[in-house]
Amino acid sequence: MTAKKDTNSYQQILKSTSVLGGVQVFNIVIAVVRSKFIAILLGPAGMGMVSLLTSTIGLISGFTNFGLGISAVKNVASAAGAGDVDKLSKTVAVFRRLVWITGSLGFVLTLVLSPWLSEIAFGNKKYTLAFVLISITLLFTQISAGQNVILQGLRKIQYMAKASMTGALAGLIISIPLYYFWGQNGIVPAIILTSLSTLFLFWLYANKVKIPKVSIDKKIFKTEGKEMLRMGFLISLSGLITLGSGYVLRVYISNRGGVEDVGLFTAGFSIIASYVGMVFTAMGADYYPRLATVAHDNLKCKQEINQQAEVALLILAPILIVLLVFIHLGVILLYSKQFLGVVGMVHWAILGIFFQALSWSLGYVLLAKSASKVYFWNELISSFYILGLNIGGYYYFGLTGLGISYLLGYILHFIQMLLVCKKWYSISLDNNAWKIFLFQFMIAVISFITGYYLNKVLGYSIGCILIIVSGIYSWKELNKRISIKELIAKRFRK
Known about the structure:
Strand content: under 5%
Distance between the termini: 26 Å
Number of domains: 1
Order of helices and strands: HHHHHHHHHHHHHHHHH
Largest sheet: none
């Protein structure tokens, strides 16, 4: 019975990952096309401008959204899991009102601070109007996040997938003509219209979910809202620290190396965060609410965490090794030869993603258990040493140093998460997760050495063999847990 239950759990992980993973692949194709056009039409300087505008807005959003996009998922998932329709209706009603309040706060704050934001980000007030115009996106983004929380909390994976795919396509269709005809002057309209289209699509799919509407008085709003904001506030602070450290790093790079270096850093980080991060995004959408339903039981939490870590490593490893082998060609394909300066950075950072996968799997337990104080201090400490490593890495080794600091930062973060989870919840990684990690990381290190130090012909030859070895290993290990052949056969029979 336990074995069957484990198999079903692995199948649920793979099913949600395959659906949202497919969406992420589609989004990546769209992002590749968009990035290619930005690289050609705007160049590194234009990409740097986009990065500074969006990261500044992201910083304000992190300050004003009170972490509702994360904290409220647990409330929605818990109410839905308990089958309490009345509780679910009240939770959603309270949450939607909070979203409007916090979104409006972000909008007004950005509007008022526009001159100072321009001065901080660009060193002058030339971009004040740009910040005034894009301030409305704070409201759009928060409302969109609110709709996504409802879909995620109720685990409406198909709706999330459709909203995400159509949103990505709409953003592409809107952005490219604006960049083509207006160049850098099209950046602000593109940001606004893309944000508006995303809001419309998530609202459309969230309204397909039939949740009874209820009226809530001040007492209910205060009681329910206080619970969401209590956890969300510390999550927001920790998120703000993370965003703030990223923002400080971008401003530091801009001041020391110029806006072009910011563009190169953004391009390299996009490969790591967007193209590889698709697995984290796909898994996290279902993993968090699933973990929240068993948060009261440490043994069940440990089982969910280890299963998620195993699947994450088995899916990620072959992708990462392909990137290690072909990153030089990948940068040219995704951007242009102007962006080859990020190859060294991405090479080192890819090794860090192996540790990120494990710390990511462990980290969700803090959110699932509503351990907001532990989560806050955990993120605060890690943000400080990661920022220090990043600044030191860039100061001494340039963009490549940022890749090295990424690796060192996530090694430390992984060790930190192991200690926190062991001390507070007696949760650790089991032998299967360690075995998968050590084997795949060893293959990655060999791929790194061959790609970094050997000539291209020899490096590609050995690299292809290593990709095959990693892929076969992942296939066999996944098949042990899920019986992929049988799963595929069932799909075809259907």
